[in-house]
């Protein structure tokens, strides 16, 4: 563990260290509470976020006193340590297999306020110590960056006829396997102060959980490993721990990324929380990657899920049949699924995979809603709130083919007019209500707006 963590060569500055170690202020409690989502399931005490907001003036001093007592006594209250695990189906795989469920911890709001206070401090520091190619939970970074980068690398390697390999690593129950000791030592190595580290240790001291199953709660059991999904600071802690993997891979001289033309840089590793994608220029680098992962597994408790990990050879890259058994990974021929979006050698094939299912689903749902007696404005509201949200993520990270745009636009307009005559032009119904329109979302305008966000990030970085 010590050897793996020793690759970290950056530390937070003294001002950030002092900020993280500072006493909890009333303003921080207020900020944390007001930022919390409403209408969410409470913890074991049944007290919701709305309850704390309603009686905040009465509870503010009490909360501050409780948090100070927790720090002095080095342990959370019994109720704060308890979590109720609710198993959420991942919407893929056999429902009878436990690994196809994600455990979400229902935690008390008073604990979540405290954890969010520390998370708010943590967020301000992370951009200074986490590599640019980690996009999860870092202010100013977006998941679309990684997808765009990998797509551009594939285009570069294919056009220049280079040798390259896209290696996508899936980790099994990444959050649940993370070692507490590894997190604490990583925090220390990054230069965090004793006070902040003590708070994180308190969050994981003698914690326990039970499982909600068919309306009943199981007996409580100790949680000695893993970070709780549902805790405001969990994802941030995981990102910090995952940075050690990035540091070790970048410092390994036997791993070669894809050279970026006209620069001294190379594209090598892209992360979004536990989703790790590597772009390497030779097969010997693949062998070396798994040596680094073996060290990471031994240090942090992580485990590669080889059944879901994949390799995509690009350009002149080739994986022979006998090598497939050597790597024990899925070898893709033309495309790979990256963060929910297909990218690969043939853009037409990827566009079809990315959009055909969405078009069919939207048409099917529109036909179902057609049976209801809705006003014109009601149909517009259905399209806006229920259907368009299914498109935004894919539209943000990849272009929509012209034919798909026409198909969706036709289906939506036909739904608005209940399959009857189009009484008003399309340009009118997408206009503002004050101009006589219906404010029907215009997909093409949304697509251009997303492209402008890419341009804005580029300009902000280069000004």
TrEMBL record:
List the InterPro entries.
DNA/RNA_pol_sf (IPR043502), RT_dom (IPR000477)
Q: Could you tell me which residue ranges the Reverse transcriptase domain spans?
A: 69-343
Concerning Pfam families, the annotation shows: RVT_1
| Name the record gives this protein | Reverse transcriptase domain-containing protein
Q: Which organism is it from?
A: Mytilus galloprovincialis
